[in-house]
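Structure record:
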Amino acid sequence: MRAPEKRTTTGPQHEERMTSVEDLLSDDSLQTRMTLIDQEMKRFLDNYRGEPSVLYDAAHHLLLAGGKRLRSLITLLSCEAVGGDIQSILPFALAMELLQTASLVHDDIIDEDLMRRGVETTHKKFGAKIAVLAGDLLIAQAVEIIGEQATPELLVHLGRGGIRMTEGEALDFLMCEDSPASFNRQRYLKVIEQKTATFMREAARVGAIVGGASEEQKQALTKYGEMLGFGFQIRDDILDVIASLQVAGKTVQSDLKGRRCNYPLVHALEVSSESERQTGIVALKEGDLAPVLKMIDETKAIHHATELAKTYVERAKSVLEAVDLKNDKLLNKVADFVLERIH
């Protein structure tokens, strides 16, 4: 599974929903909040430097390249939803962005990817050794920021979230070494629950706690973040397959080429015959995506994945209906963006 900043492909669009970061920013209310996050990021980048300078250049490389700021936005909106002060949540939103970026730096090294957010990956530009240290630095910076502001409860939740995310990354990476039987829906959902949904869940939980949420509000927002995480990753998987199809299976950064956990692939393998599964796995190992893409097309895996992503996003929106929140409309707009985004 890869983060979507790497892609420049297009997918399904809906005139009433947001499909890109630019569309998300076109909403004045959300733009105001994302501007606050960007300003907090700029203050951090301007003032938080050390030696050797190349280490800080590497650590801040992807931060300067931009990104969706989705997890930090969820943190901010969750705090605001329960009546919390936006200014008080900004350091936590920044910390979430640093932690997310650290995971991307390390993920790119593992996947040997060359581009991220329209620029060279950190390890390609600065070398793998500096990139590893840059990711470590981002984690340490995030911990320092959170430690200055947080309670032990928050630190525990963030630590547990980091552990789960790392476990999910390892499960995803190891899946390509396992038998075809490991490519199944149950294992896929376990991987993305740990790797993607956990981080979004904790982003929402942190915002809720800092904002002074009631137990009911905290549970609802935490569930919202978790369901959004599932929908986000499944949509990301769809975009990866679309990218592969558009360039006849030659996408350098494809999850399929890396034999990573991808829902359309998992669905296609699971509903195919044993011989077809074996053929697909062999093709993946040999880097031949044509048979795999054909299998995905014939099993209507993209449609199936799209419907599943919709289900998770609707669940995310539905949990908000049962509690009193001050900005449920904005949270719903973010959920729509997750489902309809094109990169």
Q: What stands out?
A: Confidence is low (pLDDT under 50) at residues 1-20, 247-254. The longest helix spans residues 215-246. Strands lie at 115-116, 119-120. The chain has one domain: 4-340.
